[in-house]
Amino acid sequence: MSTCTDSNEERNIWNWKSRFVSLICHYSLELSHTMRGSRGFKLKDRCKTTQVHAYNPSSETSTSNPFPFPISKLHFPTINSILQESADSIISLSTAETFLPYGLPRTDSFEPPLELCLKSVDFVESLAELYRKIQMTQDFDKSLVYLEQYALLCSLGDPKLLRRCLRSARQHAVDVHSKVVLSAWLRFERREDELVGSSALDCIGRVVECPNAALLHGYDPNSVFDHCLCSNQISHFGNNFLSSESEEDGVVCFCIGNEEVNCIRGKIAALSAPLKSMLYGNFIESDKQRIDFTHVGISADGMRAVDFFTRTRRLDSCSPNVLLELLSFANRFCCEEMKSACDCYLASLLSDIDEALVLIDYALEERAHLLVASCLQLMLRELPGYLYNPKVLNTFCSSEARERLATVGQASFLLYYFLSQVAIEDNMVSKVTVMLLERLKECANERWQKALALHQLGCVLLERKDYKEAQHCFEMAIEAGNIYSIVGVARTKLKQGQMFLAYELINDIIIKYKPMGWMYQERSLYSLGKQKILDVNEATRLDPTLTFPYKYRAIAMVEDSQIEAAVTEINRIVDFKVSPDCIELRAWCFIALEDYQSAIRDIRALLTLEPNFMMFHGKVRADHLVELLSQHVQPWSPADCWMQLYDRWSFVDDIGSLSVIYQMLINDPGRSVLRFRQSLLLLRLNCQKAAMRSLRLARNHSTSKYEKLVYEGWILYDTGHREEALAKAEESISIQRSFEAFFLKAYALADTTLDSESSSYVIQLLEEALKCPSDGLRKGQALNNLGSIYVDCNKLDLAADCYVSALEIKHTRAHQGLARVYHLKNDRKAAYEEMTKLIDKAQNKASAYEKRSEYCDRDMANNDLSMATQLDPLRTYPYRYRAAGNLLFSWSNCRELLFF
């Protein structure tokens, strides 16, 4: 018994020692690894998209630090506490690995994405040259020039400017093909396909986007302003042809199988020269009263339809199958008039994508130009949903498919530009994208077209790691005039281990051309040491809107374990330019700081911008990470959410408000009013595409007709269709009076130069809106807008009352309106103090500093404007103010010189 007991004690002691040694080894390894990588945690793979990527753990799994925190955040247990806290340590280790399983990024494997657009080294000069080109071009030839303008303006990323270019291109389009593509492109920009219950052939009432109007050849200079008549379908095609003047000189009988069809010989002969030769020429049929047409390829019903057409010039009684027979017959015997009638009428009958997919090959075979255009229109207006349909791919992708389309005038640079943009947005590295860009290159005729096609193809091939082919494309794009493609060449050389050559390429650009921010940003990728930071800082000085320099500096701070400073650096750009990659990086930093509430806020805001966002180089779903982090924060009830929303709204914290609304939508996904609030915040953050997506979701989740009309009206208003938006608002009010309908109508009307009568009507509409049920968030905005109208009408006391009422329900922006009232009453001190209150409350303060500068002396104004520029470099007023001051100073010096 004693021996057994001793043996058990020895075994327990040995187990305890083994466990102790293993734990000591574990923490020693962690400590040594942390000390080796004390500057931060490294990325393994290079960044290739706009996301901030984490490293691929496959090659460093055994040595990578699972704690992505600075040393000060790590807690190393004492020997006496190891056994007591070993279980807790294991749990802590698992939690850290869950939250940041791939560590934080590092500077030496981080690069900005290549831009896929034409990027001029002198943007203003290029834009001016295009304007001159537009002025010198005949109206009916301007369509492609406006498309070139679109390609150039893509670098600005302003959806409204781009939409205006497309509308101008459509307005000046002459041929059916261009009209079809451009009207489909405009529809794609609005994403009408996402509206539940909408048809591909729906339109907003304007000629430029009407699918029926697109099938009419000719130039109409007023088309951008004209309303279409969709109720008058194109069924008139083929029904109004004049009757032929041929003599009725007898009857000819066509035998088809066992059936006979009697026709008037002269009218059949009048259809074409071959039929005239057959019936009146030297052929034996000219002497026959009965002609065998059994093997001609037309049925008895088809021949009766031919006879009916020769008598009436009408096709509306024919079935689609008979029409197809007539089209084939017309091609066989060169009956151009009947072919045109069949082509037009068949085109007008197409109503859905399935019919188009069936008829497209037949139309191409018969060379029915309008029918092909109608089929293409339905395919294009269903994008991106049908992009990967095998029939659609077969129609567009191969070189042979392009040639088939070209035979009927339906292959163009315009078509493949649209298709390639859709493909790039959906999946940049897919084989379909490559094929469409190859077709785009084949269709390119002008230099700018070749430059664009080759540059975009080079970018896609670079992403697909086809470095040599990508380099060749970039070099050809440079020959075609796109200097920015040198950046692509440099990247391909870097990937092939030629870093010095890449540096020399970019350095030559800086020497040769006027230096720009993107040039220094690019050179920083190939610089080392202090020069790298100097280039990054110079890039920010020349172009504060570039996101890469801020992210680079933030990551460098993370490597130095200065995570709070990294958050501050990212905040510098997030405060004026919201992008998913910056929000993602800031969320990582908050996780490293164990500030999970802030991390959740950022990830929810990120998911609002991109609902399917994948973090850590596409390895972790962002919504899954939110679920994990939510287990470590206090949950909010619906009442808490509303309180938080009001607080963040009143503090002008738009990202925080987005986060709260995202949480509320998880609990109530069908709440259309929340989607609408979301769209307002996204517009305020200049995220127009995401805002439009939220508006469409609000419309789709609406449970009432009047509410759907309001959201459809806002969609139209935000895409530049004010009159249509007003019509939607009025229709909604006719069904039910609501706050949003009155507000939309007032907002749309106020978007013009108002006279006293119009201002009174807008005031009346806003007052009616305030009488309708709504929440404080929207009523605060209505009161603020009403105050602004009163100010314009010089009703300052009424305006002040509106602003005070808005402030009582926490509409903080009303401070600005109230300050304006004080200023107009010659009380600049009160105006200054009012704006100071806004600055004290608001999280986003740039506009407040800018406005406060109007209510103080010159030195204080300069300080406020400097702060506004520091917070938001995109605000133009501070630059104009300082430029005007410098101009006055220079003029004053000139006067003194003249005096002496």
TrEMBL record:
GO BP annotation list: negative regulation of ethylene-activated signaling pathway
Pathway(s) where this gene product acts: Protein modification; protein ubiquitination
Keywords for this protein: Coiled coil, TPR repeat
Record flagged with keyword Hydrolase: no
Protein name: Ethylene-overproduction protein 1-like isoform X2
Coiled-coil zones: 825-852
Keyword Coiled coil attributed: yes
Annotated Pfam families: TPR_8
SUPFAM superfamilies: POZ domain, TPR-like
Lineage: Eukaryota, Viridiplantae, Streptophyta, Embryophyta, Tracheophyta
InterPro entries registered for this protein in UniProt: ETO1-like, SKP1/BTB/POZ_sf, TPR-like_helical_dom_sf, TPR_rpt
Matches recorded under PROSITE patterns: TPR
Domain of life: Eukaryota
Ranges for the TPR repeats: 780-813
Organism: Nicotiana sylvestris
